[in-house]
Amino acid sequence: MKYKRVLLKLSGEALAGEEKTGISALTVADIARQIKDAKNLGVEIAIVCGGGNLWRGKTGADMGMDRSSADYMGMLATVMNGLAVQNALEAIDVPTRVLSAIEMRQVAEPYIRRRAIRHLEKGRIVIFGAGTGSPFFTTDTTAALRAAEINADVILMAKNGVDGVYSADPKVDSSAIRFEEISYFDVLQKDLKIMDQTAITLCKDNNIDLCVFNMSEDGNIAKACNGDKIGTTITGGK
User: Which residues, 6 or more positions from 205, have their beta carbon under 8 angstroms from its beta carbon?
Assistant: First the structure.
């Protein structure tokens, strides 16, 4: 095994399936099955879910809402997605815990770093909900922060239909080149839109690798956890 502990970043849209919005039970069940296959390799898995399938803080802000309130609504959306993933995993006998950065004891455990690590050591999958607990931060930044806190070896960024990082948008520019490996330095220099710059800087400063891959291809989550060469790997080196 190349990685002992990974953090899997799932976008909200990935949970919506073909509907693009809401939560698709069939899609979530399929993702849970793939996560179980990856866990069976012996890797410890933590998950951060986005909330874009239910709500985006920027959408609310564009509507004239207070940005903090809009972002808090987005954090609640990530908890809803986390509970959906937890339910799908436990339906196939995978022990899972949801830890929320915003306290809501009736539905999730409060986020405590040592508790999260202990759950991972006991073989449970840990889902981090409610972002960082503060507005103005994306779930990409949450993924980078939590990966650093739990000493994850890599962040696996599961994309829906996107098989890596390109020099330009391949849907617009037919000459776009896919990188097999690139450094965070080059990502920042080329202004590649993989994650927001706060998240990229956190990964770079903490020497956490990032693997961007297509989760639509069955078995890719397990392959990424195993360190197989799929998608694009971003490293700290220049």
Answer: none
Instruction: Find the mean pLDDT for residues 44-60.
Output: 93
- Lowest mean pLDDT, pick from 56-60, 88-92, 113-117, 211-215: 56-60
pLDDT of 93 over the 50 cut: yes
Residue 32 has pLDDT above 80, yes or no: yes
Q: Under CATH, which architecture does the 5-235 domain have?
A: 3-Layer(aba) Sandwich (3.40)
- Nearest Cα to Cα of residue 206 among 164, 155, 130, 156: 155
Binding residues for UMP: 51, 71, 132-139
Alpha helix (H) residue ranges in the chain: 12-16, 25-39, 57-62, 67-90, 113-121, 139-149, 184-190, 197-205, 220-225
Annotated binding-site positions for ATP:
9-12, 52, 56, 160, 166, 169
**Phi, psi at 211, each rounded to 5°:** -115, 120
Domains of the chain by residue range: 5-235
CA angle 221, 96, 215 (to 5 degrees): 15
127, amino acid identity: I
List the beta bridge partners of residue 211.
156, 233
pLDDT at residue 58, rounded to an integer: 82
List binding-site positions.
9-12, 51-52, 56, 71, 132-139, 160, 166, 169
